[in-house]
Amino acid sequence: MPSPYLDYYAAVADRIVPFLRGRHVAVEQRFRGAREPVYRRHEGTGAARDWIKSREPEDVVRWARQYAVAFHAHLKPEGPGCWFVLDIDSRELPLLMAQIAARHAFDVLAEQGLAALAKFSGADGFHLMWDMPDLRALGGRSVWDIERAVVAALAAQVERRLAVDPAAAPARAMAGEDGRLIATSSQDAAHKTGLLFDEHILKPNVNARAPWSIHAGSGLVALPLDRAGLDGFEEGRAAPEAVLARLGNEPAPDLPRNDLAAVKRALAAWTGDGNRTAAG
Prior knowledge:
By secondary structure, the protein is of the alpha+beta class. It folds into 2 domains: about 1-75, no CATH class; about 80-205 and about 255-280, Alpha-Beta Plaits, CATH 3.30.70. The protein is built from 9 helices and 12 strands. The chain has helices at about 5-15, 55-65, 95-110, 145-160, 170-175, 225-230, 240-245, 260-270, 275-280; strands at about 25-30, 40, 40-45, 50, 70-75, 80-90, 115-120, 125-130, 180-185, 195, 205-210, 225. Helix 1 runs antiparallel to helix 2 (about 55-65) and helix 3 (about 95-110) crosses helix 4. It is globular. The protein starts with 5 loop residues before the first helix and ends with a helix.
């Protein structure tokens, strides 16, 4: 029996491989009769054992023939640079609340001149991401320090907007009169009823589900979205067959690049601490 997603990945391989090329890749495989997927980071054995890499569309198809369900890429590539990923999780709230928060976050970034690619997580949230290609100006801070600071600043900015957005009323009702609408840690027991802007996924060797990958649990596509696509998103659009039906009519959104200096300037504007942030 062939892999159930072979035809899908053969059709989107040229779109997904740019997000995998030059990075360590983790592959989720689900074999017939297995209750749980297998999560693989390496191939080969002994001296030939190495990180999984996908340089060409044919590499994606090869793994799809081996029952690959999902592809994850390391945020930090083998060379310079790093991805930023804001993971917005709806948790116990309706997915629409995460969608509204993602729209606000997108606009907060745009107001500071930062571009982002949005994508459906494939399950219960959305991601906003971009590439920072040159990290030589980091100074004494790590890229993870900067990225976590951006998550915290975006959470504060979006929280203020959700507080007055009529469409976010269900989130406010769930949080209660004195509750926070957004937590930045899944371990924050005092604020489990709000959305999660997860800062703790930003660390060495972490990976993220690549755009166009299928989510192994839901069977839906981690669909990349521009701002208009984020506005009009409905889960049915992320079904693999629906994605394939639109491939010839919709261009693939590119992953934007924001240089580190622009990210620092935005962070300074959000935090009001320009001297320390710019020097960091």
